[in-house]
Amino acid sequence: MPVTNMIAFIGGTGLLLILPGPTNALLMTAGAERGFRKALPLVVVELMAYAIAISPLLAFNELLGAWRAQGGMVLKSVALVLVLVLAWRLWRSRPGAGNGPLVSGPQIFWITLFNPKSLIFAFAIFPPVTGATDLLGKIFIFAGLAILAAMAWIGMGMVLASKRQGNIPQAWLGRMAATVLCAFAIYLGISVVAEAGAMFL
Questions:
Q1: What distance in Å separates the CA atoms of residue 91 and residue 174, rounded to the nearest whole number?
Q2: Stretch 163-178: mean pLDDT, rounded?
């Protein structure tokens, strides 16, 4: 991979991964709730979900052709539903001895699997792939940056909790995460409506 292409790939990937979104909001909540070390396994779940989401999109990039727009709209619509359902559950979460953590591995997996960022990675950032060596290099860079970005968001949550001396009610954490997810859902909803209007009107 030429140096200029590598710099562009690192810059684009790093910026997109660190931007706020549903996965990062959940990682921050997990960091605030359970601390840095206990939240780290969620990073592995995120990587698995991104790999499953991006691989087929990248493999069939050329075959999708004109169907990319429709596929993107479907993916965003599914993500919108998932985000709203999760926001509702987080908002209604109540602390109690029998309750598990607010953020679970399956939640991270499904939210990341349908994260619209995967479309940008597969259709705009990874291409063009000039060979196996180029692809492997991009995969390793992506994985490293994804780990760093996830750790940064978990760390932000941990710092937030430490400033309140760890005394953040679980219900408050849930509602904070739900609010962030709702804001992202509004963005997704506007995007889906705009794309549908451009496609069918």
A1: 5
A2: 69
- Report pLDDT for 24: 94
How far, in Å, CA of 24 to CA of 83, rounded?
Answer: 12
**Is pLDDT of 188 > 90?**
no
C-alpha–C-alpha distance, residues 59 and 183, integer Å: 32
CB atoms under 10 Å from CB of 86, counted, come to 21
The domain tally of the chain equals: 1
159 pLDDT higher than 50: yes
- Report d(CA 110, CA 107) in Å as an integer: 5
**Cα 84–chain centre separation:** 15
Residue 134, classified by CB atoms within 10 Å of its CB into exposed (0-12), middle (13-18) or buried (19+), is middle
Cα angle 17, 23, 26 (rounded to 5 degrees) comes to: 130
On the question of a cis peptide bond just before residue 169, with omega within 30 degrees of 0, the verdict is no
Question: Which domain, by its residues, includes 129?
Answer: 3-200
pLDDT in tens, 92-111: 776 554 567 788 999 999 99
